Amino acid sequence: MFFSKDIGIDLGTANSIVFYKGKGICLNEPSVVAIQKDIGKVLAVGEEAKQMIGRTPGNVIAVRPMKDGVIADFEVTYSMLKYFLEKVLNSKNIFLRPRVVICVPSGVTSVEERAVKDAALQAGAKEAYLIEEPMAAAIGAGLPVHEPKGSMIIDIGGGTSDVAIISLGGIVVSRSIRIAGDEMDEAIVQYIKKNYNLMIGDRTAEDIKMHIGATYNIEIDEEYDIRGRDLVSGLPKNISIPASEIQVALKETVDSILDTIRNCLESAPPELAADIMDHGIVLAGGGALLKGLDQLIRDETGMPVHIAENPLSCVALGTGKVLENIEILKNIRRIG
Ligand SMILES: Nc1ncnc2c1ncn2[C@@H]1O[C@H](COP(=O)(O)OP(=O)(O)OP(=O)(O)O)[C@@H](O)[C@H]1O
């Protein structure tokens, strides 16, 4: 067999998912690391560290090392990758160093690529391969990427939105912006601060987005109770926020993503654009779950739009398929 102990990693901004060949998804944890600032010691990684966000004492910080979809902090990314790899290898009683396929956003620079590879090798991988995230997402969503026919995938994650048109196993046109789920959370924080004089944390903003967040093209008549800190009195305060206001808060971010999609479609060769018209666009990543987004993209582009079956695990499933099929490996860019 080509690979014996093979592992695929979707090193996401928000969540990291590890796929172990033959076993499926075996780890799915937030990409968060808690660090004791004065001595630089890693205190917790993953789920445990996420619980600490916004709740840490002064000398402990909870960091998201991949914040903008890239390696913002090499040392912390290395610690996180090492922890996830060791957790999977220990739980499966594997003592050999694995070969690892890692997904990176399509817009990464060669310096960032090198940093991801080095982190994987230092964390215990025998060999490290990279695959661009939209390609992995398209494979995970079951698109016919090897056929001479255009497939379009939109992957809206935490830090980046990747849009790609794929044909004959390669990315023909792609666009990547560092505007996605995190930016939506930040827009909600700013909206509530400005309009309610209330300070809320990123986790509350994400909660609001997941419960009542929607694009502006649909009618949604819901409210959500939240708690924050009143900026005038300094005391905790509860308010009920209507979904219609969150639609306003999210408009700018949603419009940036729409512009990127339009821009990618405009650059597509006419034959591929015609294929996409026939078969539609597939939406993946957690952002695909934002209410109304599929409909909005349909209305704005005039193309059919489908949400992938498992939008949050599409990329990891794609790396799994890559590990299992040697033919697909030919399309992986080996770095170094
Ligand atoms: N129901 C939902 N509605 C809106 N957004 C959601 C929903 N569920 C998850 N998300 C958002 O999806 C994002 C995470 O998606 P995903 O796990 O695909 O990203 P990632 O792979 O970690 O990031 P990236 O692709 O940028 O590296 C988060 O911003 C999260 O808040």
TrEMBL record:
Chief localization: cytoplasm
Q: Which CDD domains match?
A: ASKHA_NBD_MreB-like (cd10225)
Tell where it localizes: Cytoplasm
Note the SUPFAM superfamilies from the entry. Answer: Actin-like ATPase domain (SSF53067)
CC terms in the record's Gene Ontology section: cytoplasm
Q: Which InterPro entries match?
A: ATPase_NBD, MreB, MreB_MamK-like
**Record-annotated residues binding ATP?**
13-15, 158-160, 206-209, 286-289
What is annotated about its quaternary structure and interactions? Forms polymers.
UniProt-listed HAMAP family: MreB
Protein's recorded name: Cell shape-determining protein MreB
Source lineage: Bacteria, Bacillati, Bacillota, Clostridia, Eubacteriales
